[in-house]
Amino acid sequence: MKKAWSALFFVAAAGLAAAQATPVGLWRNVDDKTGEAKAEVRIVESGGVLSGKIEKRLLEDARPGDVCIECSDDRKGALVLGLEVIRGAKKTEGKDVWEGGKILDPESGRNYGLRMTPIDGGKRLEVRGSFGPFGRTQTWTRLQ
Q: CA-CA distance, 54 to 42, in Å (whole number)?
């Protein structure tokens, strides 16, 4: 009987770990220049496609009425709080990598190719924005 309970425990624990190895959840990112916490982004899944919105701004100079002035698409003039900054990412078959979408930098208004990879058992997320061969990677921290 103990073996059955042990096996059940390990199966349940493995299932929880696998469930966290996804970008879905609430994440904190940091400012590349200052290292300060910048925002909290909630990533959700719908029909196998991920999107993410700024749920909370953390920078001292952030104001609730700030809008995306530099955006050139349907987000131009939209409030930064609640702004959809991640669009269209899909899981790569056979890998714990989500890509094919875009990530928006609300400060510059630029969209970048997106690649997200959960690391440390899903506790952190490598988020890479790129334009052709150029890009940068940030590591976000899971809050939920």
A: 7
The pTM assigned to this predicted structure is: 0.84
Cα–Cα separations (whole angstroms), residue 47 to 44, 91, 126, 137 = 10, 11, 23, 26
Q: Which of 45, 51, 23, 53 is nearest to 124 (CA)?
A: 23
CA-nearest of 92, 8, 89, 4 to 41 is: 89
- Find the mean pLDDT for residues 39-43: 97
Closest CA to 98 of 81, 119, 82: 119
Mean pLDDT to the nearest integer, 49-73: 92
pLDDT band at 12 (very low <50, low <70, confident <90, very high): very low
Q: Which residues pair with 52 in a beta bridge?
A: 43, 86
Q: Sketch the domain layout of the chain as residue ranges.
A: 2-142
Q: Give CA torsion, residues 91, 30, 137, 103, to 10 deg.
A: 50
The architecture (CATH level 2) of 2-142 comes to Beta Barrel (2.40)
Question: Cα-atom radius of gyration of the chain, to the nearest Å?
Answer: 17
| Alpha carbons 103 and 89: distance in angstroms, whole number | 9
Q: Compute the average pLDDT of residues 128-142.
A: 94
